[in-house]
Design a protein that fits this description.
With 270 residues, the chain is mainly beta. The chain has 2 domains: 4-114, no CATH class; 127-241. Helix content is 8%, strand content 42%. The chain has 3 helices and 16 strands. The protein has helices spanning 14-22, 92-100, 261-264; strands at 4-7, 29-39, 43-52, 55-59, 66-70, 79-83, 88-90, 107-111, 127-139, 143-147, 151-156, 159-164, 169-180, 187-193, 213-216, 228-240. The radius of gyration is 19 Å and the shape is elongated.
Length: 270
């Protein structure tokens, strides 16, 4: 993710986010300070977790990415969600699944290099977008395995597919690294577009295909002697803005109306 500048001054917990928002009203929120970041207009800035219907939205007010880092605990692989500058992202399922597994800790980090999908034809003004990264060990056998809560791996012969769980869609792969438990060299795929074709470096814009699965044919051909595979994925994912809040669209900086919840909702941790 690059150089990390600030970490939340008060570390939240998963239950500390879920519990207050469970019976809260839409636009009620929790907020956490990241270092001493301020601006001249609105004063101190905070990352917020906002109630939106039955969902929890993580809201990044900064002009640089913010990452939610979930450690490996109790059988759930580690996972990082990088939210672009001034964007929002639904995090309900990944928090609830960890809470059910008695996992409570995570970190909020600010800084790093913006993963700008528009440079590779991935940006879509109708979608919220984020990068989800996870690493896990899976059996080298036909079947499907989860890594983290949002991503999974499916194996069919020598083919490997990356899958994403709803409500997210899989737009492309920033990086996929596959290694075995013997001496074979690892396989590395970078900047591949999920457009229904054989994965190749991104050269053209997305053609409105947003499935939940991306197949890498013969990705395991050189790893057939390994019983276990170590897979590290960084996936570009999206979620329709219309499903959440029409004005919260990627591709432009946040407008004042995007943050009306700070005026209309209650802050539950002041």
């Amino acid at each position: 993710m690059g150089f990390i500048q600030d970490i939340a001054s008060v570390l939240p917990t998963i239950m500390g986010v879920i519990t207050p928002l469970f019976n809260a009203k839409t636009n009620d929120y929790l907020r956490y300070s990241l270092g001493n970041d301020t601006n001249d207009v609105n004063g101190k800035r905070y990352i917020a977790f906002r109630k939106e219907g039955d969902k929890i939205m993580a809201c990044n007010p900064f002009n640089e990415p913010v990452a939610l880092v979930f450690p490996e605990r109790n059988g759930i692989n580690g996972e990082t969600v990088t939210i672009p500058a001034t964007d929002h992202w639904p995090v309900t399922s990944m928090m609830v699944e960890r809470a059910c597994a008695n996992v409570d800790d995570f970190q909020i980090l600010k800084g790093g290099i913006q993963d700008d999908g528009s440079a590779n034809g991935l940006a879509d003004n109708e979608n919220l977008e984020a990068t989800i990264s996870a690493t896990g060990k899976v059996a080298n056998a036909d079947g499907q395995s989860k890594i983290g809560t949002a991503l999974g791996i499916k194996i069919n012969g020598n083919d490997l597919s990356v899958i994403v769980n709803p409500p997210y869609s899989l737009d492309g792969i920033a990086s996929l690294e596959i290694s075995g438990d013997s001496d074979q060299p690892c396989r590395l795929f970078k900047n591949t577009l999920n457009d229904g074709s054989t994965p190749s470096p991104v050269q053209s814009k997305r053609n409105n295909v947003s499935p939940l699965e991306m197949k890498f044919p013969d990705a395991l051909d050189s790893l057939k002697d390994s019983k276990k595979l170590f897979v590290s994925v960084s996936a570009r994912c999206s979620c329709p803005a219309s499903h959440l809040k029409a004005q919260a669209k990627r591709g432009r900086k946040a407008q004042e109306s995007d943050w009306d919840f700070l005026k209309t909702g209650r802050c539950l941790n002041e």
